[in-house]
Amino acid sequence: MPEKYFEIRWHARAGQGAKSASQFLTEAAEEAGKYSSSFPEYGAERSGAPMKAFNRVADVPIRLKSNIETPDVVVVIDDTLLKNSEVTSGLAEDKLLLVNTSRSIEEVRKLSGYKGRIGVIPATEIALEEIKRGIPNTVMIGALIRATDVVPLDAVKEKIKAAFSKKFSDEVVRANIRALERGYQEVKLSE
């Protein structure tokens, strides 16, 4: 029987931080003692073009290297992508669609046609308030952790401190931790 991996597919536009969020989550998972992989997939390589990133997280070594067709979670960083049926392709109704949006769960359900569990968080707004930049990936990681417990929140906080303190001021580090915590606390989940 094949090993079961926890699989995440990210949908965004190039330049919105999905690749970085995916890589960051993998590094935090590994530091928390799990096995993890991360890789992007680009269409046209230009800023603003739709792209995907993928994560696998497991308690055993990950041997599978293919794209993720039946994810446990789909994370959507740009809600204008919700009308694209590819976003929810392969996402079973007992799984999670997590969206960066100021729209309600009901609006996301109508736009996407997805009947399963939905999470919404205005991640770009939170990022602008906390980090002063419209890059929502840290907020989305917080929301993802709250919805799934894929990695411990403290492991991500430690990863932020270790990675960001080398390049940024203490205030930037604190702002990113606040953004992560707000994503964790403020995500709204259906059911």
UniProtKB/TrEMBL annotation:
The keyword Oxidoreductase applies. GO terms for molecular function: oxidoreductase activity, acting on the aldehyde or oxo group of donors, iron-sulfur protein as acceptor. Keywords: Oxidoreductase, Pyruvate. Residues 14-185 form the Pyruvate/ketoisovalerate oxidoreductase catalytic domain. InterPro entries: Oxidoreductase_gamma_subunit, PorC_KorC, Pyrv/ketoisovalerate_OxRed_cat, Pyrv_flavodox_OxRed_cen. It comes from the Bacteria. Pfam families: POR. Gene3D superfamilies: Pyruvate-ferredoxin oxidoreductase, PFOR, domain III. The keyword ATP-binding does not apply. Transmembrane segments: none annotated. This is Pyruvate/ketoisovalerate oxidoreductase, gamma subunit. It comes from Petrotoga mobilis (strain DSM 10674 / SJ95).
